[in-house]
User: Fold these one by one.
Assistant:
Number 1:
Amino acid sequence: MLMKYLFAKNDEIPAGSATIFFGFSSIFWFVVGTGLGSFNAAKLAFPDWVTGTELFAFGHMRQVHVLAVILGWISMAFGMTMMYMTPALGNTKLWSEKLGLWTVFMWNVGLSLGLILLWMGITAGREYSDLIWPIDLVVIFGVLLPLGINVWMTIAHRRTQGIYITNWFFGACIFMLMIVFLVGNSPELFNLTGLTEAYLTFWFAHNVLGLWITPVAAAIAYYTIPKLTGNPLYSHRIGHLHFWAIIAFYSTPASHHLMSAPLPEWLKSFASVEGVLILIPAVAFVANILLTMKGKWSMFVENIETKFSITGVLLAIPLNMQGGFQQTRAINWYVHGTGWIVAHAHLALLGMSSFLEAAAVYFGLQSVLRRKLYSLTLANLHYWFFIIGFCIYWISMTIAGLIQGAGKIYEVPYIDVVVAEHPYMIARWAGGTMVFTGNVIWLYNMWMTAREGTIVPAGRYAHELAYER
Amino acid sequence: MAWKFDQPLYCLSDEQEQKETLELWEKEKHGGLWTANNRLPLPLTYLIALIILTAFLVTMPIWGQRPNAAIYEGIVANMDSAEVQRLATGEEKINFLFQQAMATADSRLKGDLERHPLAWDDLLNIAPGIKELQAGGGKYPLDNYNVLGDRISLANFEGNFVEGGFRERKQPWFDKGMGIDMFYVAYFVIVMVLLIKKLPHYSRKPAMNKS
Amino acid sequence: MGFQQYRFGAAAIGLMFGFSMCITLLGPSNDFRSGVSTWVGLDKQLSLGRVIGFSYEDPLVIGDGKPVTVILDKDPKTGATYDPPIRAYVYEPGIKFSPGVNHNELLGPGVMELSLNTGKIGQADMSNGAVFTIAQGEFNGEEVDYIVNQTAVSGWQPGQVLKAAGDENHRYVGKGKTIFITEGCWWCHTLLPEQTQDWQFFGAPPFLGDMNGEMPTAFGSDRKAPDLLHVAARNSSREWMTMHFFNPRLVQPNSIMPRFDYLWGKTDINGKSIDYKKWRSDYTAYVNGQSIYPPEVPEPARDSEVRALMDWVLTSLR
């Protein structure tokens, strides 16, 4: 069906097609990504489980999990939300539905190719920018640029005069992500070496998180929460504060990832302060959303999308408290490189960000398909598998990290740390598998929604209707 | 943008601009969404001030200072004393020296010594080096070096520049990064205040809850 | 809020982001440039070649197009003995040089001048190949190490040096690091000791000049296993490593490291094909207590990937 539309006239493509393809692709990649995560965790818990084959070795799978989740699930869910929120917020249609479909197509093809190459071991050897540079160029010019053009043109052709905060974030973040991709991959493109390469690797890793994954997820919440609750966003002012603080403070602290590398000390000092200041956008965002919920807190319990969304917002609180302080010199030496950081990374991506996107994908697919969710029970199952699995993962990895940290400073032989961590590695695998199971349920639920969900009458929202199942 | 000098931070937009903005605001629905014109809640403003203050206080490079070769200064100084010579084994000697050093140490040094035990044989190896560095025999002062087991090695910090064009090999108590931060934060705060004050005053509430 | 203000806003985003990039990218680039290559840095870049990972010369990332490090105990031309033996970095014709040879400023002040004037690296020619060594010299009163192009200085030819050293003295360091990258060893083993206590255990962290010309640095961020930066200084036993790579639980029962037996390839050092199936069933029998001794680990072939990996670990990580 995608193939048919790729070469159709733009006017003949039904509105919302790009959203639907993006939405299902993202859920598919979520299933793949968490499946790989669960598989990898099993290998850490039981090292002799699947063994002796190159392709199924941990070192070949780990980066595929990371990038499938970041570029497949999270970023495609962002693409999906951009495809329906941007036009909705401008009282207009998407600038080009066809370009949107081409973006999905290129994205899936490019990502599959990149991940298969990574899986085979064809890599650039740089964390988070593992993809080889030809694939990086595909991502920048084949995926981000068309996505950006579509979003920017839709914003430019809007039929409102103002631009809502969600669209500021969308427009700005795609632009900044393109710059970050170009600069971050410049060591591969121009063969930059040494500490420059190491620093740019983490400059990229930090900014991908800071200028793409967290702010766009926040932008999504700025849409879903007012839309679902019917309350106006609490404050335009706090929105400004959030937006500008993201650009000012989230783009600067990259070097706090390399506190024990011989980077100039002034850069580390600079980055540490900016790293704590990340709390400013975080506080602004959380306050704005939670104040918007005023009078509608019952929806946190009753409405599945709000439940996902608010969970994500609440997880942003521990996320930023950890993130702000763990990078200071006084704390970093204890937790750096341990499971604590793994827990923190999953709190950001699997906790805060994924919950917000799941809400938007639930809401968006129902709105665009004009069908009510197939089964609330399955959606609730998804939620509880997701949150319980995530908490098991997060808590077990945090404990494992503290064990590793103690082992590190008291010079415990490393093997004793491995032994002490083992129960938490099993817990981690159990937690990850629960999340994966939840996602399989979700994919089924969404598929059945598209096929058999109750049709939503014109002028109504899916969440206003009662469930029939 | 016209400054009102008698009310500099009340609102920077003129009457006409405010009127237009509010009309627009009431008319537009952004696909069924609205943004209310509430002020920055006062607790939030305080919280932000607190964050900025905390950011500087907790990240001062004096916190998380790494121990260096200088923590063994006292031990090296006492290792040849008569009390130590009287003890039979190396283990007894080093235990005695550590107890002696801990008794007079402040809490930071005490913690450092606790986490960095030293064997008597290693002490014998590093002692001449430490004495030489103490006397100014190295390119850098003693606290720019680390003790790794039985050897002394230069620390890898790229710290502030000191006289002679060298970089200090230890964490500074203050450096230009903190200076850039102060400038950066000041600039951010000023820009934010100007920007927020350019928005219509928060007492003007467009009626947006009525659909 | 008129439309004009959004144009202003868009410009402000660019301005703010550009400002932060100036501080975080332009600022430190001056500091990085002043890094003077140390012996470690020169050794790394000469033994690793131009780039590790995906590149024109090695698109499949299997370690093609890399130089060979050889341990020389006598001069291949004059026959004079070296005690201790020296390292020579052999670039056969067509192998791309390490970054510092072509972009001399990467070597840092002092090292660059000496390498160009005394070491004659400017005369190195890729189509003829070259042999480099590291020498020590003085520049403005500072002791520095610099690169010597022995092909130009002493007339050593790549093929001649390789032959004079013999296979047992070849170290496939560049290929070894490629294996380290593709097999994802660095997802668990960092190459950057943490601060303080860690240094006592895992050795000193690198200096600014220790990685000039290295790409990628592969510091790693997630340490599920010991840091490896100085591992060869703690354990330099090739026998131990052979067993540990084949099945880590032969030497460390609690290890969670994967088995890397597949890096042995099809045959062992004598050209005999390796029967993995039998080995595994024998090993299972040993684990279950049915036999007293574990099966013998095959000795890796000369061109096997695991040999290159061990070469890199034992030569580069000191």
Note: Chain A has two domains: 2-23+52-364, 370-457.
Number 2:
Amino acid sequence: MPNYTLKINGKSVSFTADADTPLLWVLRDELDMVGTKFGCGIAQCGACTVHVDGTAMRSCQLQVSMLDGEEITTIEGLSTEGNHPLQEAWKEVDVPQCGYCQAGQIMTAASFLKENPNPSKEEIREAMQGNICRCAAYNRIEKAVALAAEKMS
Amino acid sequence: MSTQENKYTFSRRNFLRASALASGGIMIGFNLFTACKPNVKPSVDVENLNFNDFNAFIKISDEGYVTIYSPNPEIGQGVKTSMPMIIAEELDVEWDKVHVVQAPLDIKNYTRQLAGGSQSIRHGWTALRQTGATTKQMLINASAVKWGVDAATCSASKGVITNANGDKLGYGEVVKEAAILEIPENVTLKKPSEFSIIGKDVINVDVDKIVTGKPLFGLDYKEEGMVYAAVVRPPSFGEELVSFDASEAKKVSGVIDVVTIGEKARNFIESGKNNWTFKLSKSDKVVVIAENTWAAIKGSKAIKATWKEGSQLEDTKLHDEKLLSLLEGDKFDIRREDGDVDKVFSEADKVIERTYHSPFLPHNCMEPMNFFANITAEKVHLVGPVQTPEYAAQVASEMLGRDLSQVHIEMTRMGGGFGRRLYGDFVYEALEISDKIKKPIKMVSTREEDITSGIYRPAIKYRIAASIKDGKITGYHLKEAAINDNMYGLIPNFFPAGCIPNYKVSTANYKSNITTGAWRAPYTNFLGYAEQSFFDELAQELEVDPVQLRLDLLENVKDTEDKRIEYSGKRMQDAIRLAAEKGEWGKAKEGVYQGFSAYYSHNSHVAEVAEVEVKDGVPVVTKVVAAVDCGIVVNPTGAINQVAGGVIDGIGHAMYGNLTFEEGKPSSRNFDGYRLIRMNETPKVEVYFVQNELSPTGLGEPGLPPAGGAVANAIHKALGKRLYKQPFIEELKSNVLG
């Protein structure tokens, strides 16, 4: 199996994996970073969202062999103290029910707010529609994204 | 404890025991589930319990910090937060001094260590309060001894005990003394007006871990030496394994081995010792064992298996025909009958009859099914997300021929349950795999496997008829035709039982080889919509306001002495009036269309007003106002989250949820073909609670059943079209939108 070195959450990490292994499974099984979740494996639910060079992407679709030299951020590295404005907003609004999809929701929202720091309600609803929350905590996710935008401005 | 009868009388001594910890502090053990159901015969001699016999604990450290071990599995319904809140309230400690830990399963003393039916809070309410209050009294008694005063002159609040002289002791300062005192009987519980934690918003206790991605869920669990397992199950319901070729799978790098399982499951089925949580096919299954999940999944896709038809391969067309013919036929069980429905139907001015159709639904928990198992000569160690750990332990013990005391189950937080994790099929597969290869394993299902080998909400059809005479509803007949099982428990006695003098519920079922089971608010998730749509039509026919029609009918049940009727006419009316007021019923702006629905389920009363607007010819649900009577609201922020989620879940599945079958095979396999509601399709949901001081009831399910009906009724107002079939989107496409 080939060796890879990736920059994840600011640190250089080496591991062996098959070339076609999705980043999702490298994170979860090889690197013990389990915050990035497996939901569907076909980029439809958003539970596995990470940032590649700051852009939200579905880690279930990213083969490790394609990621050479890219900067990857996962939920574990979104902030050093778990205090990114989105994480703070998520707590304040008490968003999670089961909580499984929330890391993916936060990662999608973080990338979105970087592009659009002052989104309208409609823009939030469109930007977040790729992330499924089966508990349907959608009202609170929407509210928390808006609150985080406020905190960041 | 001298007589046999006394032996099982509920007493503090029966479920509480305290002892000093070597590390400092006190541990209070209590048997919550014996306490919750005092008439249940304990499985062990309560006089000789030791600490291992308890299933819930409070630990108080010398510094006064309190750890509460929460007994019930957490599936997103919030009990890991709300159940400890109830203890902390009566214990009278500040919430920021409380740390909550998930307790493991106690297989000896369970009576209800499960998540299901929205019952955790309802059953736990009194016992949790008594536990907190008893512990507080022990700390007060210990302080009184220390001060040499009468305990009655002391009081405790916020972790501090005070006596008449104004002396103060922290809980942590008297824990050692408290641990050796007699457990007090007859403690006084707080009045609801004295609550300082219950009724306040307490944020989900796991929120920090959730938003920072810490391991919490079953899929996150790991042990040294663990390997991964992917299971190849029959692709169609009714098929069985004939043979397989694993040569390509074994070439996948990371694949360790390919084995089959199924023998232990078959033996269990054939033993006749069935358990309701056991739903596995008799077929052998192929299992790919690998070093990591990806290799296991890849390997499982490379298996070339041959299957044969073991029983009929069914399809949706067949189900529709069977259920319709049941509705037309006369093979019904009569579940409730009041008066003479046939007579009033024959004498009526008009009889209205409608038929409502629903499809199969998969649960689609966001966390796919998975479980860890490590079967060794010493122990059966199982870890993962399961709503019914005690049943899983029993089946594990039977399947493996091991003593129940050797089975150890740890519950992880669950990435959704919705009823799917009531069934332990994934536990039983995992243990059979580990037993076979003698290694710690993690069984992981993909989304495709979850959707196609599910334990589904079955397809059901309702035919509802009502007779009208002189402008009044005189008779009501509900017929249910369902796959595999029928409505359970007291559902035949729900509204409008007791409201209409001639009333009948008849049920029939068709046995299918497709596995079915509970799905969030079983039966009522669809019945609520069917019934409440029907009442909307009745109101239209009678030319009365739909809200008024329900209020008037509910007058008739207010003084009922029928013990089978557990819903309350008054509480339902309270919820209806609150929803109508907060939802501004009848005062919608132009272009906004309202629909009303009210439904009692799982011991809570809920009424909802849905608003629909038509955008580009498409009805869009923009707002739902829900009013709920669940008694005392333990944790308002959690309660609102549950109801709002239930409403949107109900709308999402009524609108889009649809699993059809062809030749025994589900037609959707993943979220590209199976539609779940997404944020841009969700209404704003406002939730209000009827204020009273009645004992609390659950909220995981009750918000869902009324939602589909409120939306269908609003769509009718908007488009003039009644919806009789779920998912609505199909009917809207074919009938309304052309």
Note: The two ends of chain A are 46 Å apart (CA to CA).
